[in-house]
Write a structure and sequence with these properties.
Belongs to the AfsR/DnrI/RedD regulatory family. Pfam families: BTAD (PF03704), NB-ARC (PF00931), TPR_12 (PF13424), Trans_reg_C (PF00486). Keywords: DNA-binding, Transcription, Transcription regulation, Two-component regulatory system. It is a single chain. The chain has 997 residues and is α/β, with parallel strands linked by helices. Among the domains are: 143 residues, Orthogonal Bundle (Arc Repressor Mutant, subunit A); 147 residues, P-loop containing nucleotide triphosphate hydrolases (Rossmann fold), CATH 3.40.50; 86 residues. It is 62% helix and 6% strand. It contains 46 helices and 16 strands. The strands form five sheets. Strands 10-11-12-9-13 form a five-stranded parallel β-sheet, sandwiched between helices. Strands 3-4-5 form a three-stranded antiparallel β-sheet, with no helix packed on it. It has a three-stranded antiparallel β-sheet with strand order 6-8-7. Helix 16 links the parallel strand 11 and strand 12. The longest helix is centred in the first third of the chain and has 27 residues. The two termini are 40 Å apart.
Length: 997
């Protein structure tokens, strides 16, 4: 309960728990007595705890509190506390207890009447009263369609429990109430879990439900929720296995069959009932999707013409409200107005799509178009899915995307698509939804799409657009000149809009002045009426009016790849102080030649970028000026990334071995600011690396700096956030370095690619790259790969069960690290060697090596690296049977990984905790950790996911859920068989045994 101050014994103020306020009234004001029964019996006056006395006195207090202010007679209280065997002086004892309670409670709070007693207090002063109010409010919120609020309220109610209700309170009355309150808590918990599934949080719910069904195997409602959560997580076989386990358990324990609801759910799962993919009735915008997506760009207020196409597209989109999904694809040359028309039509169609509108620029004209999986990730976030619930693969993202849209009416605008292959995964695929696609190519391969070929404007439409921008008065006075202008623009909407906007911004110009400028062939290319050259010629009008410094900024900034550029990076390109660079960039924004993506960030429209590069090739002479601009950008990224690395890994020797830079980078106040920068700059930074790799005949120093930049930015790989883009950059660098014949650059590039394959679980590829890196490093005398490549080969050998090879490689790595004075690397190799030693049965040596590595990390203050060391030690301790110590080490590592934004390592550590809990005989906790690892969806490839699933199966087997366990093992078997992994033998043995694993 965020924002609620704690009071003694970690209890929250009951009324504050309900309202979210930090203070709340009680019967006697801020200092009034308050009580708790949802756990041990407790009482406070203000923040001061009150002594509640002996167990029997607490039993009296509980009996009075649970009567809600009604009077309990003395005989009722005696029966409540002692039942059928009261002591001889029971009545006198009751009076004594009442007298003691009266002394500690507020005056007049404990009253005597009709031979009995009552406690008068407001419901908000008792945690049970608050829980009841929260549950009632949750029911109202759910009935009103606000599931998110209902889920929050139920969570607050459940948070009020502190273990067993009335803990330690004797007597038959307390025992009965304890059972009743425990059962009510379960009902609230099941309602909250039901809401979790309705809100789409099925992946996270699986972990909790797995643990709950293990602890309470006969609660069929929990089993039903688990089946549904597994099915919605794409784990159909496990969902069916849960039913088989339940049927067998109920038959063995109770001699009954599962209830009809559970059997009906099994049948619906068997036939893949589409309605099971999402909640029975879609969540409102205030619940599972707290913000209905409304991502359409603003429509232009002066939209002109296109009446035929507007009507045609509007009719197609309206049909989506019925039984089909509508797809319309607009094709035409750049600048013809595809996006403008699509946005206008989309806004007009919004009433047909009450559940929202999604938009993405697919950047199909760029060298690196948006990958479908990246667009799907953006859409899923807009539709309410947290990052932890978004799968890794494009196929899983597409499936989750379609499931989320099922039953909803959403319009998707896919702008600037490259081809049909890029578009297909982004189509909703369900009735009621529609997609609008724009592209330079005709989408003939998009099955069922309504195709529209967009041509230039008619002369009448072109003149009307020009007039709406410039004004009736100015155009009316010079109609022929206006016709000359739109004619010179080739009736291309983008060219017309740019020309008219320039004129509108210059009140001293006449239309004839603009027409004369366009008539001058020196200012207008002959290609104005053909393809992309028309757009280029139109941009020439704006470029020609810039000041020389602005022109230079325009053409140099266009050289840099990447979706956008920060002000600091732009200043590096221009070799200017940031404030001078900002003035130039803002001037370009005013001229509509540059867009302000966000404060301090800028981007080109893709066509404007192409034009800017053409200007650079033409006007930035000699070519060395262009090369120098990109070199400064590379230096800026390398120098800044090196500082991020140094802040993250103090004492690591890598920064000392990086290529020298002539341009400085940013300086950060702390490591958190440094991490923020590296993740914010991920796309442009990796684009800079790829651009350097793609340069023909690039100088060796360029490739070396690009390789070093990629190595220094390894957080982008290890976090799992940008692994695919990182891999493409590493492959491009390796190929370019190999072509250049530079062993130093190639050796380092292969080392970065080794890390890529390791993270993805591709061990054969990783070992091949590491082996070649070692050969190249020796040839170049480069200490970096000479140290890290054998370290990586040792890890690979560990995973492939080649322990003698692994020991040899890691001992070589330790020697190299020590020779280089790299304590951080030495610690890493020591921890890796500890795991080899453990596999060889040398457990004492293994523990000692891991502890040596941790000692180095701790001495150097390396929190994140210390987490890696504790992770290794936890594994070794598990193998040594010291499971409590292993859990402590792994739990600390988990916390450090989470604090350092390392979801990949967070997931892997959950996996190791599952192994440790399983070794300790705590199968339910093992299953919970395994499910949490799976729910994070960032596990580093299919091999690691299969390892987690195999351990989950072991835990489920011990919990008696054998059918679900076998479903897990079959899933793992398929992966191991495809990869040729040594674990295949183990999982097949599990499938063959049928015994407890």
């Amino acid at each position: 309960m965020d924002g609620i101050p704690a009071i003694p014994h970690q209890r929250n103020h009951p009324e504050a728990a309900r309202t979210g306020s930090s203070t709340a009234p009680t019967q006697t004001g801020a200092a009034g007595s308050r009580f708790a029964v949802l756990g041990p019996i407790r009482a406070w006056r203000g923040s001061e705890p009150l002594a509640s006395g002996s167990p029997q006195q607490r039993a009296l207090l509980a009996a009075l509190l649970l009567r809600g202010g009604h009077t309990a007679t003395a005989s009722e209280l005696i029966d409540a506390i002692w039942g059928e065997d009261p002591p001889p002086q029971a009545l006198a004892t009751i009076r004594t207890y009442a007298s003691r309670l009266r002394k500690i409670l507020d005056p007049g709070q404990l009253v005597s009447e009709s031979g009995g007693y009552a406690i008068r207090t407001r419901p908000c002063a008792l945690d049970l009263g608050v829980a009841r109010a929260l549950a009632a409010d949750a029911d109202k919120a759910r009935a009103a369609g606000d599931r998110s609020l209902a889920r929050t309220l139920l969570g607050r109610a459940l948070d009020l429990w502190e273990g067993e209700p009335l803990a330690g309170v004797p007597g038959p009355y307390a025992e009965n109430e304890r059972s009743r309150l425990s059962e009510w808590r379960f009902q609230l918990l099941e309602s909250r879990l039901d809401l979790d599934l309705e809100l789409g949080n099925h992946a996270d719910a699986v972990s909790e439900l797995t643990a709950l069904t293990a602890a309470h195997p006969l609660r069929e409602r929990l089993r039903e929720l688990l089946m549904l959560a597994l099915y919605r997580s794409g784990r159909q076989a496990e969902a069916l296995a849960v039913y088989a386990d339940t049927r067998r358990l109920l038959a063995d324990e109770l001699g009954v069959d599962p209830r009809p609801e559970l059997a009906a759910l099994q049948q619906r799962i068997l036939r893949a009932d589409a309605e099971l993919a999402v909640a029975a009735d879609q969540p409102s915008a205030a619940t599972a999707l707290p913000v209905r997506p409304a991502q359409l760009p603003a429509t232009v207020p002066d939209f002109t013409g296109r009446a035929t196409q507007v009507a045609e597209l509007g009719e197609v989109l309206a049909e989506a409200e019925g039984q089909i999904m509508a797809v319309s694809a607009l094709a035409g040359i750049g600048g013809v107005g595809k996006t403008t028309l699509a946005v206008h039509v989309a806004h007009a169609a919004r009433p047909h799509f009450p559940d929202g509108q999604l938009y993405v620029d697919l950047r199909g004209t760029e060298a690196r178009p948006v990958e479908p999986e990246a667009a799907l990730g953006s859409f899923l976030r807009a539709l309410g899915h947290p990052d932890t619930a978004i799968p890794d693969s494009a196929a899983e993202r597409a499936a989750l995307y379609r499931s989320t849209l099922d039953g909803r009416r959403v319009l998707v605008l896919l702008d600037n698509a490259r081809d049909a292959a890029q578009v297909r995964p982004l189509l909703p695929g369900t009735a009621g939804c529609a997609a609008l696609v724009t592209s330079r190519v005709r989408m003939a391969g998009l099955a069922g799409a309504h195709l529209v070929d967009l041509d230039v404007m008619s002369p009448e439409e072109a003149l009307l657009l020009f007039t709406r921008i410039v004004g009736e008065e100015r155009v009316g006075a010079e109609r022929q000149a206006a016709l000359d202008v739109v004619g010179a623009c080739g009736f291309l909407p983008l060219a017309i809009r740019i020309a008219a906007s320039r004129l509108a911004a210059r009140r001293t110009w006449t239309v004839s002045v603009l027409a004369a400028k366009l008539a001058d062939e020196r200012r207008r290319l002959d290609e104005l009426q053909a393809g992309d050259l028309a757009v280029k010629a139109t941009f020439e009008l704006g470029y020609g009016q810039l000041e020389p410094a602005q022109q230079r900024a325009f053409r140099l900034l266009g050289l840099a790849d990447g979706p956008d550029i920060s002000l600091a990076a732009a200043a590096a390109v221009l070799d200017l102080p940031e404030h001078d660079a900002e003035d130039l960039l803002e001037a370009l924004v005013d001229c509509s030649l540059l867009e302000s993506a966000a404060p301090g960030r800028y981007r080109f429209h893709d066509l404007v970028r192409l034009y800017a590069r053409a200007c650079a090739e033409r006007d930035e002479q000699p070519a060395a000026g262009r090369d120098a601009a990109l070199s400064r950008l590379l230096d800026f990224y390398l120098a800044t990334a090196a500082q991020v690395y140094a802040l993250e890994r103090p004492g690591d020797r890598l920064p000392a071995h990086l290529a020298a830079t002539a341009y400085p980078g940013l300086v950060f106040a702390d490591r958190h600011a440094a991490l923020d920068w590296i993740y914010a700059e991920a796309d442009p930074l990796l684009a800079c690396v790829r651009q350097a790799a793609a340069r023909k005949d690039a100088p060796v120093d360029v490739l070396r700096r690009a390789v070093d930049l990629l190595w220094a930015a390894k957080d982008l790989l290890e976090s799992g956030a940008n692994s695919r883009q990182y891999e493409s950059a590493a492959v491009a660098l390796r190929d370019a370095a190999q072509a250049s014949g530079d062993p130093r650059a190639e050796g380092r590039a292969r080392t970065t690619l080794t890390n890529v394959h390791l993270v993805a679980g591709r061990f054969a590829e990783a070992d091949d790259e590491a082996r070649q890196a070692m050969v190249l490093a020796r040839a170049a005398g480069d200490p970096l790969p000479s140290c890290w490549a054998p370290n990586d080969r040792g890890i690979i050998a560990l995973y492939e069960a080649r322990y003698a090879d692994g020991e040899r490689h890691l001992r070589e790595a330790i020697e190299c690290f020590r020779a280089d004075g790299n304590n951080v690397g030495e610690a890493s190799a020591l921890c890796n060697l500890s795991r080899i030693e453990a596999e060889l049965g040398r457990l004492s040596s293994a523990i000692e090596l891991a502890e040596q590595g941790i000692a180095i990390y701790d001495r150097m203050g390396l929190a994140l690296r210390s987490a890696n060391g504790r992770y290794a030690l936890g594994i070794v301790l598990t193998q040594a049977g010291r499971t409590a110590e292993a859990q402590a080490q792994l739990t600390e590592a988990l916390s450090l990984f989470r604090d350092n934004r390392q979801p990949l390592w967070e997931g892997i550590t959950h996996f190791r905790l599952a192994e440790a809990q399983l070794a300790a005989g705590r199968a339910a906790l093992a299953a919970s950790h395994a499910e949490q690892a799976i729910a994070l969806r960032v596990m580093g490839g299919e091999w690691r996911r299969a390892c987690v699933v195999m351990v989950l199966g072991r835990a489920l087997q011990r919990l008696g859920q054998t059918d679900r366990a076998r479903a897990c093992w079959r899933d793992a078997e398929a992966v191991f068989e495809q990869l040729g992994s040594p674990e295949l033998t183990e999982v097949r043995a599990l499938l063959a045994s049928g015994t407890v694993a």
